[in-house]
Amino acid sequence: MSIKNYIKIKNLSKSFGDVEVLKNINLEVEEGEFFSLLGPSGCGKTTLLRILAGFEYPSEGEVFFDDTNVTSLPPNLRPSNMVFQNYAIFPHINVQRNIEFGLRKENLSKDEMQQRVENALKMVQLEGYENRYSNQLSGGQRQRIALARALVKQPKVLLLDEPLGALDKKLREEMQIELRNLQKSLGITFIFVTHDQEEAMTMSDRIAVMDEGNILQVSPPKEIYHNPKNKFVSQFIGNINILGAKIKSVSNENLLIEVDCFGSIQLKNYQQIIENDRINIAIRPEEITISKISDSNYDYNFQGNVKNISFYGESTYFYVQLNNSDKILMVSKNETKEPFSENDNCFVNFSSNNLKIIKD
């Protein structure tokens, strides 16, 4: 069965005065997809979400929901609802009335409204909380009530503007799992805005990485992590070593490249690089090993000195300065067979298939 693109954004731009915050955005989101807009503060992701919700209108371009042009429709006439970062729960009324708020113009019977509220509370696992007020709820419970209030309208699309931003780390991680499970069980389209890379990677079917009003890459999390399309994406998602490089020669199948610290290396030309392209070479810290002696199991072995060691619980980062170079490589390991201390001499080892060609 083919999957339908439920949301389509065509040639969309948005300016506030002389400032262009979105630049010719083209994007499609599948029906039932958990889709994240990821990028640094000020990149335009919340503005794009607000345009989808109908709280802002584009300067140019169009928005379609289920092949219907909704570009000029107000929020109440769109098949979507929005959960805000600050939850926007009214403190002077209880949970029941907070959730009912969006239903009051739908001419529902009292019994039907009550049933919808009960169903919404059940979805977020807060049955029996109808008579509580905002100050009687924890941060996680307020977040769930905000979700219930959005879901009670039975939207086809749920828009979420950094809804977990105010939660502590442990609760945030728990809510990530709950939110993902909720989306799977409901089967509706979620569009989730975040600046937290780990959050987007954990929850999303696909991610759009944004910067300065542009969408730089749209891919599943693993694809973005292992095959970033440019230097910004590679550095924004996870830790990575970036090395300057110059192309020495190009053929249809292979590249000969001069890499800072590494010298000349040959790689497969998977990305159809041409001679005039400006490139870098990148490798993730976990794709490098550290050892006391050179390891012939790897294509490349370089000598260095351990300048710093940082322990993060699940992994340890070694910062290794290569011999005859100022370059520091990050090496990440869950454990090492050999103990290392700062100022120890070492070898860093890696395979050529772990090296990524990154365009500027």
Quick synopsis:
With 360 residues, this protein is an alpha+beta fold.
How does the SSE layout of this entry go?
Elements: E1 5-16, E2 19-30, E3 34-38, H1 45-53, E4 60-65, E5 68-69, E6 80-83, H2 95-100, H3 110-123, H4 139-151, E7 157-161, H5 169-186, E8 189-194, H6 197-203, E9 206-211, E10 214-219, H7 221-226, H8 231-236, E11 241-250, E12 254-259, E13 263-268, E14 279-283, E15 289-291, E16 300-311, E17 316-322, E18 328-333, E19 345-350, E20 356-359
Helix pairs in contact: 3-4
Q: Keywords for this structure?
A:
single chain, 360 residues, alpha+beta, Rossmann fold, OB fold (Dihydrolipoamide Acetyltransferase, E2P), 2 domains, six-stranded mixed β-sheet, five-stranded antiparallel β-sheet, 8 helices, elongated
